[in-house]
Amino acid sequence: MRIGELSRRTGVNAHQLRYYEAQGLLDADRSANGYREYGEDAMLRVKQIRHLLGAGLSSEDIAYLLPCAVGELPELLGCPELLAAMRSRLQRLDEQMDRLAQSRDALADYIDAAERTSSESYPPFDGAEPEPVPA
């Protein structure tokens, strides 16, 4: 099938399908006239890619994991390399979440401090834009 048909059947636009191919996630043959030709297995592969992207995996991670993928959701066979890659990704996500939590706490502290000084020194905020500060 050509890229337009694969796009219609999977709901993934052709630009994304070309990206998947460029990343080594999806294979296409070229016909004599240069058009991409995908096999029937391409629909399953696109669904697997979409689910893995939805899990927060990068295209690099997915390229590594796809040989271990079975089924649409997909189920990933527990080969040691696969588990190491997923544990590494999970660790990176945990670290990002920790950094975000720290940023959130710091911002909440700044807001609390600003509200305390605001209520002591200034009238309540009415939603209007603040007056410009003279230069």
TrEMBL record:
Keywords: DNA-binding. GO terms for molecular function: DNA binding; DNA-binding transcription factor activity. Residues 1-68 form the HTH merR-type domain. InterPro entries: DNA-bd_dom_put_sf, MerR-type_HTH_dom, MerR_fam. Residues 115-135 are annotated as: Disordered. This is DNA-binding transcriptional MerR regulator. CDD domains: HTH_MerR-like_sg3.
